[in-house]
Amino acid sequence: MASPDNFDALVRGRHHDPFALLGVHAHNGGRVVRTFQPQAREVNLVDTDGAVLARFERAHDDGLFVADMPPRKRRYRLRITTFDGSVYDIEDPYRFGSSLGELDLYLLGEGSDIRIYEKLGAQVRTIDGVSGTRFAVWAPNASRVSVIGDFNDWDGRRHMMRLHPGNGIWEIFIPDIGTGRKYKFELLDQGGNLLPLRSDPFANFSEPPAGKASIVYDSGYDWQDGDWIANRSSSPNLDRPVSIYEVHLGSWRRKGNNEYLGYRELADELVDYVSDMGFTHIEFLPVSEHPFDGSWGYQPIGMFAPTYRFGEPDDFRYLVDRCHQKGIGVIVDWVPAHFPRDEHGLRRFDGTALYEHEDPRKGEHADWGTLIFNFGRREVVNYLLGSAIYWIDEFHIDALRVDAVASMLYLDYSREEGEWVPNEFGGNENLEAVAFLRRLNAELHLHGATSYAEESTAWPGVSRLVDQGGLGFTYKWNMGWMNDTLSYMSEDPVHRRYHHDKMTFGLVYAFNENFVLPLSHDEVVHGKGSLLGRMPGNEWQRFANLRAYLANMYAHPGKKLLFMGSEIASYKEWNHDQALDWHLLEYDFHRGVQTLIRDMNALYRCTPALYERDFVPEGFEWIDWNDRDASMLSWARRDAHGGFVICITNFTPVVRYDYRIGVPELRRYKEILNSDGAAYGGSNLGNGGNLHADEIPQHDRPYSVSLTVPPLATVWLQPGE
Fold it and tell me: Is 454 among the catalytic positions?
């Protein structure tokens, strides 16, 4: 109702429904146009050709103007004359109806719009022939929401939004706003109190954290990876090689003055390097926007925005595109478990616990200083699912690695008695998170993507199908294997016989899940040292230990993951503020480890026995698991067509001459890999390439071969011609 009180509330930014007053409205048998222009001395109503139709009268001293709308006119513009004499024409945002249809609003309210990112946030649109940006945000408990930006002097009274009361969506279309304009949301809580300015939860691009503004972005990228996407299967191909190079984009390599490489620079240097090294996939530590460099991206605040640190979103698209053109799959770390408390983020977004739980026993990670998503709220689930699918659809990502899954599954995760609330059955399982993860994985697979769980407990069926009672992940990180084997490798070889089970125990459960063997970033930070730094002995022995360990890993059941820098045997812990020590490749030992990784990737990719049956017992058989006194291990890996590879590892610095192992067949065997090779920095002891089996029973087999196993080395054998 047009009354002085309502006018006063409007100009003070306190009116809950600005569309009820502003724009065109019936009045005294005709129509009037109202506009709020606090910067204007004078306002005129003009037609699309610029002819003046009427002069506005000032209805409030603070800048509310009213004019009669000529009959039969529908289209109009506003001509603003400012106090300094500037004159310009603008479209009136309050003449546009809602561009969210009934179905849109229904699906948003139901929490079932998987492409929610096309509805909320800042969407560049053309409406009624006028280009601009539609802004929409979910804030059901706010009493007023405005878009502020560099286009309205950051004045929350200028572009107050309309509320769709059924689902708490606020919306406005602002003409003439396009890519590159900065904006935030200004909200009043239920009591009319001004909240800290908010970034857009659905922003596609953001400025540095100091400014905290979101940026309107409309992609114009022309993808060139059609063949790759067409061949991407909707069902996981578990029988394919997966060798992952895990990368923190900010510290892989830097340029002068310790500056970041941009996405496009990385698209050339990093992608070529990964291709040369023979990895099948790159995994990026989180690229979602985040305020704190030291979180490495694991405390995201922009779940729909690649970080500004390395360029624009289309630059990131180029990086992914180049990976695909080189035949490299792309995995992105994705963090749905928690979010930071930064005041411009999701915390109490509309003055209430909207994305998080009100109860801190459910809604806070005290250890991390973060807040937990409320997986029981359909709108929050929709937000997270939309984010996941956004990365798949808009950036052609092939897989998501889901961080901190254990913290999602258990209500008592890192909590003491009395600090958590049991579920409805009295248990510690977060049933709402379980339902979310199952739905997430189902959606990812429908979109041709795979998923990796960083899950550190014995939760059953993490990588089993949902209809089989599992969580639906494609793969699970094998944290047990990683912890046990690194612990073993840190022992002095003279003591390893007493810890032999650490190298064998992983095979007890190796086929319970679809495992990835992760030597990740978490293992080279926080005082743990580098992989090389964990190896005992003198310099030669340390490098030999590392080579033997890595070659053993590549022959072990499970897909492979190696964090950047490990392939050059970094001396130091990873430091996110510095580039890797690439100068180490000037030295033979370091270059030798790199060469070994390159050669193993090549062998791995062309040897089905090493990957085809990673997840079934038929793909593995022990030869000798119990030679603990010699700290020796030997096994065979089998493919689905009769091919096999034998792996023998000597975890002591003692050469094993005439070491006899049982073999499946009476034939010639070829040494296809020896981690002690001269090219790798080893002593170059070996078997001259060929070995012949004897009809001498060994290890419950009728045939055997005698070979030399070098010190601290792994040898792979394959049947010869």
Answer: yes
- Could you tell me if residue 278 is inside a domain? no
Same domain, 62 and 123: no
Strands (E), 268-328: 281-284, 288-289, 302-306
In which domain, by residue range, is 8 found? Answer: 4-95
Compute CA distances 53 → 35, 57, 64, 95, 278, whole Å: 15, 13, 18, 16, 69
Residues 135 and 89 in one domain: no
Of 403, 523, 627, 671, which one is the catalytic site residue?
403
42 is catalytic: no
Q: Give me the CATH number covering residue 18.
A: 2.60.40.10
Is residue 116 included in any domain, yes or no? yes
Domain-embedded: residue 50? yes
Give the pLDDT score at 235.
64
Helix axes 378-395, 431-446, angle to 10 degrees: 30
pLDDT tens track for 525-568 = 999 999 999 999 999 999 999 999 999 999 999 999 999 999 99
For the stretch 160-216, pLDDT in tens is: 999 999 899 999 999 999 999 999 999 999 999 999 999 999 999 999 877 899 999
Per cent of the chain over pLDDT 70 is 99
CB 681, CB 568: distance < 8 Å? no
pLDDT at 74: 83
How do residues 340-356 score in pLDDT, each as one tens digit? 999 999 999 999 999 99
Inter-residue long-range contacts of 291-294, CB under 8 Å, 24+ positions, other chains counted? 291/209, 291/340, 291/342, 291/345, 292/209, 292/340, 293/250, 293/576, 293/577, 294/576
Shared-domain flag, residues 48 and 139: no
Residues 111 and 205 in one domain: yes
Same domain, yes or no: 22 and 112: no
pTM over 0.85: yes
Name the pairing type of β-strands 288-289 and 182-188: unpaired
Q: How far apart are CA 285 and CA 403, in angstroms?
A: 10
> Does 8 fall in a domain?
yes
- Bridge partners (DSSP) of residue 134 are 123, 173
- Band (146; pLDDT cuts 50, 70, 90): very high
d(CA 111, CA 382): 5
Given a contact cutoff of 8 angstroms between Cβ atoms, the answer to whether 346 and 383 are in contact is: no
Is residue 143 located within the same domain as residue 207? Answer: yes
Q: How far apart are the first and last CA of the chain?
A: 91
Side chain identity at 467, as an amino acid letter?
Answer: D
Which of 454, 484, 614, 627 is catalytic? The answer is 454
User: Do residues 13 and 156 lie in contact, with contact meaning Cβ atoms separated by under 8 Å?
Assistant: yes
